[in-house]
Write a structure and sequence with these properties.
11 strands; single chain; alpha/beta; 11-stranded mixed beta sheet; Spore Coat Polysaccharide Biosynthesis Protein SpsA, Chain A
Length: 307
């Protein structure tokens, strides 16, 4: 049976090699994505689907893919502007990708059963993958997904504001996601919703989403099928995006799906700002000293044992 991790990496193509998101963070040149795949394999995932740009395939496979191909069933799918449902054509002026929902659409034929989705350039921590794997392996409700959330205080940058999805939660159930710009203050944060509504103050233990979800095959089909409806309304809007949080909000409101909210003990790390890299490198070095990671993640021919 496939236990699949879907890695959204199509946005990395234009950044590869030179910008902050793909600078090495490990002692042997490892990227964030290497630690994500390592944690996923150790948690029990046996298949990884990388969503990338087609013109990025050779560089991606040479630098990342070949490190893991002998450790886990590896698939590559391409998120391209012209990968649209039958009958639709990308406008000539469109240059912006269609969004995270379209990324899942591009992987529609590579995914069987329940699966987890992550960003390629976010460091989520090992505990998050154990929680995700438990969902992928054991969930039996075809219309119920998982939103894996962090306390917002564990996702902040010391170097400026960040964008997070405030989880609107009731008794462990997700009622919605409020995408917001988060600004840290002394002991609290100010959330400025991206929809233009009034900013509000909230605590450091408020739960937020960072594109870390568990989906079923049924939810995947909803995402795939609704892409056409999105295009009917937005195909001629150059900046429009078919985004996973928007899809989740809409389908929860309609009563078509439900989502459980679970937390994680892991600390999230990202590189929103170049200065964030130093903190992440220090954190990884501490994880290595504590035995969470080996100094060299992937050795040719060496099997990774699940925890």
């Amino acid at each position: 049976m496939d236990y699949t991790l879907v890695v959204m990496a199509a946005g990395m193509g234009s950044r590869f090699g030179g910008l902050k998101q793909l600078e090495p963070v490990g002692p042997n040149g490892e990227f964030i994505i290497d630690y994500s795949v390592y944690d996923a394999i150790k948690a029990g995932f046996n298949k990884v689907v990388f969503i990338i740009r087609q013109d990025f395939y050779e560089a991606f496979r040479e630098t990342i893919g070949k490190r893991v191909e002998d450790k886990v069933n590896t698939r590559y799918v391409f998120q391209e502007l012209n990968d649209l449902p039958l009958g639709y054509q990308t406008p000539e002026e469109r240059v912006k990708p269609w969004g995270t929902g379209a990324a899942i659409y591009s992987a529609r034929d590579a995914i069987n059963g329940s699966f987890a989705v992550i960003n390629a350039d976010d460091f989520y921590g090992s505990d998050s993958y154990r929680v995700l794997f438990d969902y992928v392996k054991n969930n039996t409700n075809p219309s119920e997904g998982l939103a894996l959330c962090y306390e917002v205080g564990n996702t902040l940058s010391k170097n400026g504001s960040v964008k997070r999805g405030i989880a609107i939660e009731e008794n462990g159930n997700l009622e919605g996601i409020r995408e917001s710009k988060i600004e840290a203050h002394d002991g609290y944060v100010i959330a400025k919703p991206l929809d233009g509504s009034e900013p509000f103050k909230t605590s450091l233990d408020t739960l937020v989403t960072v594109n870390l979800f568990g989906f079923t095959s049924e939810i995947k089909d909803i995402i795939v099928d609704n892409f056409s409806k999105f295009l009917d309304e937005n195909i001629n809007k150059p900046d429009s995006e078919y985004l996973v949080p928007d899809i989740i909000n809409s389908e929860i409101t309609k009563g078509n799906i439900s989502f459980k909210v679970k937390g994680t003990n892991s600390k999230w790390h990202g590189v929103t700002y170049r200065e964030d890299k130093e903190e992440l490198v220090e954190a990884i070095n501490e994880y290595i000293k504590a035995g969470v990671y080996p100094e060299k993640l992937f050795e040719k021919g060496k099997t990774l044992c699940k925890k």
